[in-house]
């Protein structure tokens, strides 16, 4: 039965009127910004619903949608996340400091000292609105100074659970003092604010040390995760020696669980935090005193479960040996379940120590290293690591694909000795690309063809079911990973 155009319009109108608001709002959540703003022009009901918080609370407005930033700041009631370039000209510069749009996660790119003052106004405006959960401030080509310190102080007052501060693109050297008047970064009472749980500062330089220390001290009882970056500004004391005040502050945090830092002076004091379960140590500065302090921390810490040791190529090898052996002889040796060991250029010195330490870590389930030597692969046995479930191998590139690497004798010995081990090399290609010849025949020009000659392993035609198993496993996990797992039970 055919329906006239008028009847179709009437039917659609009746159906729309019959839909409840919650159904329409569910549909609006999946519209892009142009379509959502167009709904405001259809009728009063859709215009009202188009500005309802339920239509906006899951939206993320990043730099790619900057042409819509001004309408969003003017009309949207809330956003899940918003990214702003504070230094960029446009109407959003004024609106960002006066908008009524409540933002859950805010990222500000600050590219000049003057922009830092405006960023303070943006943060204070969101503080007045309420609801800010995460705040990221990225300083680009802007050396730390008074404005940056004032901005950090304002950021710590607005009550986010997560505060991240990054610096990019400036050269080492003394920071200039601002000629403009900037309020002193005083941290006020935060009892009525949401607790700060995660704090990350990629540049812990002398200019920012007082305000960063103030943040750490003020939120000592609530911080659970702290990332302290290496110094990027030269100091008279050299390296990161001016960070002597950081470790005592960390030691006074009763809920600290996750710590990433360089080798801080006095790091052994942080072992007093019984709540720490994860630690990432960046091996700088490369001094015997700093390494001894870190080694003592690894010996004293009681409940470590996830440990990462990242070495620089210029670190003396004998210093690194102290750390891995300290972990194996420490109080956490029976609780460590995950160990990431980036050896860098010190494989010859550190690998034997790692193999010596493994039998002393009976709970180790995940091992990640940047070496695929036969010495390592043959050293992984049920006797040395009895409960190891996954071995991740990073940064080896002499083979064109993981399939060829799978045919190595040491790999076969490893898999035979550890039948339940999940081996994960960091190859992006499981097999070499194989040219069937059809594409070349369809092309009018042979100049566009590529050399896709497979390696000997791929030319053998074995392990054909491996790739399908990998794809299915990644789909089931619903994750995107750079690792290529080699599961068991794969047809040859």
From TrEMBL:
A Pfam family reported for this protein in Swiss-Prot or TrEMBL: F-box-like
Domain F-box, chain residue ranges per copy: 13-59
InterPro entries per UniProt: F-box-like_dom_sf, F-box_dom
Top-level taxon in the UniProt lineage: Eukaryota
Name by which UniProt lists this protein: Uncharacterized protein LOC113218339 isoform X1
The organism's taxonomic lineage, starting at the top: Eukaryota, Metazoa, Ecdysozoa, Arthropoda, Hexapoda
């Amino acid at each position: 039965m055919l329906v006239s155009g008028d009847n179709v319009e009437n039917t659609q109108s009746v159906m729309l009127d019959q839909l409840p608001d919650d159904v329409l709002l569910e549909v609006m959540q999946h519209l892009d910004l142009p379509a959502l703003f167009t709904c405001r022009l259809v009728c009063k009901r859709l215009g009202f619903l188009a500005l309802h918080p339920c239509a906006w609370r899951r939206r993320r407005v990043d730099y790619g949608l900057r042409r819509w930033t001004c309408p969003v700041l003017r009309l949207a009631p809330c956003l899940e996340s918003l990214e702003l370039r504070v230094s960029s000209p446009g109407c959003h510069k004024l609106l960002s400091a006066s908008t009524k749009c409540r933002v859950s996660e805010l990222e500000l790119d600050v590219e000049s000292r003057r922009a830092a003052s405006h960023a303070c106004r943006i943060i204070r405006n969101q503080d007045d609105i309420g609801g800010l959960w995460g705040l990221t401030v990225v300083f680009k080509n802007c050396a730390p100074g008074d404005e940056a310190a004032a901005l950090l102080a304002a950021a710590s007052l607005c009550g986010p659970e997560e505060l991240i501060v990054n610096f990019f693109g400036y050269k080492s050297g003394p920071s200039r003092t601002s000629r403009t008047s900037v309020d002193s970064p005083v941290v006020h009472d935060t009892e009525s604010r949401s607790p700060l749980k995660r704090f990350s500062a990629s540049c812990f330089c002398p200019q920012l040390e007082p305000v960063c220390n103030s943040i750490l001290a003020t939120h000592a009882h609530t911080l659970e995760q702290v990332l302290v970056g290496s110094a990027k500004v030269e100091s008279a004391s050299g390296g990161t020696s001016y960070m002597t005040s950081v470790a005592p502050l960390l030691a006074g945090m009763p809920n600290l669980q996750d710590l990433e830092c360089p080798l801080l002076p006095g790091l052994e004091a942080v072992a007093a935090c019984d709540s720490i379960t994860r630690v990432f140590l960046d091996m700088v500065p490369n001094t015997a005193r700093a390494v001894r302090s870190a080694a003592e921390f690894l010996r004293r810490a009681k409940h470590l479960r996830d440990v990462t040791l990242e070495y620089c190529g210029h670190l003396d090898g004998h210093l690194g040996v102290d750390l891995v052996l300290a972990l194996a002889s420490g109080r956490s040796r029976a609780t460590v379940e995950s160990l990431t060991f980036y050896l860098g250029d010190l494989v010859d010195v550190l690998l034997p120590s790692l193999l010596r330490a493994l039998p002393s870590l009976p709970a180790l389930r995940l091992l990640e290293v940047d070496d695929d030597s036969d010495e390592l692969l043959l050293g992984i046995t049920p006797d040395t690591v009895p409960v190891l479930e996954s071995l991740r191998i990073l940064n080896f590139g002499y083979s064109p694909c993981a399939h060829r690497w799978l045919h190595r004798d040491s790999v076969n010995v490893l898999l035979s000795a550890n039948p339940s081990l999940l081996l994960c090399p960091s190859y992006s290609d499981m097999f070499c690309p194989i040219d069937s010849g059809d594409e070349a025949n369809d092309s009018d020009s042979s100049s566009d063809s590529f050399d896709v000659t497979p390696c000997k392993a791929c030319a053998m035609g074995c392990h054909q079911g491996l790739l399908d198993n990998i794809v299915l496993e990644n789909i089931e996990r619903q994750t995107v990973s750079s690792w290529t797992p080699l599961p068991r039970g794969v047809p040859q």
